[in-house]
Amino acid sequence: MSKTGDAMSKTNDAMSKTNDAMSSQPTIETYLMDMDGVLVHEERLIPGADRFVGRLQHTGHRFLILTNNSIYTPRDLAARLATTGLVVAEDAIWTSALATARFLHQQRPAGTAYVIGEAGLTTALHEVGYTLSERDPDYVVLGETRAYSLEAITRAIRLIDAGARFIATNPDPTGPSPAGPTPATGAVAALIQKATGVKPYFVGKPNPLMMREALRAIDAHSESTVMIGDRMDTDVVAGIEAGLQTILVLSGITTRAEAERFPYLPSRIVDSIADLVETVGQARGAASWRPARRSTPDGMGSPAPEQLPTRSAEAS
To answer: What is the set of active-site residues?
Structure first.
């Protein structure tokens, strides 16, 4: 047998064992899933994604769409998904910008930040009581933007040199575009780190912090939750480190051969999310489930809108 054939045989054996392990684990009741590469690709719906989400809504499974994209607000993303034919409520979308804002609020309430990013990030920071400032900020916060400014990056470097703490929304080095890969937060963070000698703290995937916040948002338990993604280095490893079952879809970044090179494996590999539609059963307690209470900047709990699926109500 050739080396390639032997490697594929070992991968298949390993996946068979993980699939057996997955079948022996608790029934999946809640779903976390990436957006780009799983539900959409370059703003086009991936075939079967609408049927999968519709199945979750019909059966009453709680779910959340996770994205490291910090450019857009959840409302913006919900509207963009709607143009592809995928209808989800904005409260079913959890972004790295929201996770970053919540983290900063927990660390230094009512702080200040110099931000490189767009509306998704600045809006999230404003909503937790942060002030955007170019003068002696508590943090430099780096997110995604359509066009990184050398002037803004230079100011960030100088502020960090002066003592500002360095936070980045996610470590993704590139992002998708119709023309091909474009530099993303991780690449620009590496530039700033090289210039300052200061390593950023990344809040988004694969940081388990983002996964725990997502689980809390939909009142989910790790042992009965699955993470579905297209990247081994963010989605799958984040799910594994958070104690979730994991499914890699091959409709995005990672190929089956590339997945085999990692020191860890997902619970299952499928061609696309369409292959999972028939695996979704009826959720237990679907008719009586209500959204979890969410914390507001003043620390008081308030009910979240009816955003996630029940038998009688519409559900990222």
So the answer is: 34, 36
Q: How do 40-41 and 44-45 pair as beta strands?
A: antiparallel
The 8-class DSSP code of residue 205 comes to: T
Q: Is 16 helix (H, G, I), strand (E, B) or coil?
A: helix
- Spatial distance between the Cα atoms of 208 and 211, rounded to a whole number of angstroms: 5
Interatomic CA distance for residues 90 and 266, integer angstroms: 28
Q: Which domain holds residue 293?
A: 29-68+206-303
Task: State the Cα–Cα distance between residues 194 and 208, nearest whole angstrom.
Answer: 25
What confidence tens digit (pLDDT) does each residue in 110-141 have? 999 999 999 999 999 999 999 999 999 999 99
User: Does residue 214 sit in the same domain as residue 275?
Assistant: yes
pTM (two decimals) = 0.81
Domain co-membership, 185 together with 220: no
Residues 267 and 242 in one domain: yes
Query: Is residue 97 classed as helix, strand or coil in its secondary structure?
Result: helix
∠ CA 237-240-242, rounded to 5°: 110
**CB-CB contact of 231 with 37 (8 Å):** yes
Which tokens go with 107? 């660390």
C-alpha to C-alpha distance for 132 and 146, rounded to whole angstroms: 20
Q: How confident is the model at residue 250 (pLDDT cuts 50, 70, 90)?
A: very high
For residue 97, give the nearest of 210, 252, 190, 242 by alpha carbon: 210
Contact 101, 127 (CB under 8 A): yes
Cβ atoms within 10 Å, residue 132: 14
Q: Burial of 28 by CB count in 10 Å (0-12 exposed, 13-18 middle, 19+ buried)?
A: buried
